[in-house]
Amino acid sequence: MANILRLASLSVFFFFIIYSPLFSNALSDCNGPCRDLNDCSGQLICIDGKCNDDPDVGTHICRGSSPSPPTGNCQPSGSLQCQGQIYPTYKWSPPVTSSTKAKLTNNDFSQGGAGGGPSECDEQYHSNSERIVALSTGWYNGGSRCEKMIRIKASNGKNVTAKVVDECDSMRGCDEEHAYQPPCKNNIVDASDAVWSALELNKDVGIVDVTWSMA
Ligand SMILES: *[C@@H]1O[C@H](CO)[C@@H](O)[C@H](O)[C@H]1NC(C)=O
């Protein structure tokens, strides 16, 4: 019995020897290890054991340095209740290829429009005559695709390039910032009127299957 106790306390001791240096240093920067937000520098918060931008603060300090998603892990990561309905939330989207399958939806990027707050990339509202899109959270990838062009192809043979300006939030929704809409699915290209008309699609259809790639 005494031996077992000694063994147990030894392993606890070694656990601290091994793991404490991880946390005893100064505050962690982007992707650095953390247990809670006190371990992260500045406005960063602790997400899944790593310091990252706080979506509620909307900073892009860690833009482009977020870890790449484990491929194939596009399962719902949680759920959100919205006006009595339960919606899945998604942290990741399917991998981006030269022909990424997506659902095209229509978004209003203008101030006072049905799209909610200003665009995530530049904190600005946009005219719906610009060829612009919002991408699901996984594809938005913490802002790494902001201001980049993507090419969208419709099954009618038409294609168009459009600029990424916003996130179609797959993790949050049902609040003022998201115009009280439920969270997005993880495979959404939410496009302006200009994108729909360039593809010669009728936005009143609501949702159309398309493919996209980085332009
Ligand atoms: C996009 O459409 C143009 C015609 O508008 C065509 O010439 C071009 O080959 C298409 N590009 C792709 C990648 O499908």
UniProtKB/TrEMBL annotation:
State what protein this is by name.
RlpA-like protein double-psi beta-barrel domain-containing protein
Where are stretches of biased composition, namely Polar residues? 101-110
Transmembrane segments in this chain: where? none
Keyword Secreted assigned to the entry: answer is yes
- Its signal peptide is 1-26
- State where it is primarily located: secreted
The similarity comment for this entry is: Belongs to the kiwellin family.
Instruction: Please list where the region (Disordered) is annotated.
Output: 101-122
GO cellular component, alphabetical, reads: extracellular region
InterPro entries cross-referenced by the UniProt entry? Kiwellin-like, RlpA-like_sf
Q: What UniProt keywords are attached to this protein's entry? A: Secreted, Signal
Q: Which residues form a coiled coil?
A: none
Q: Where in the cell is it found?
A: Secreted
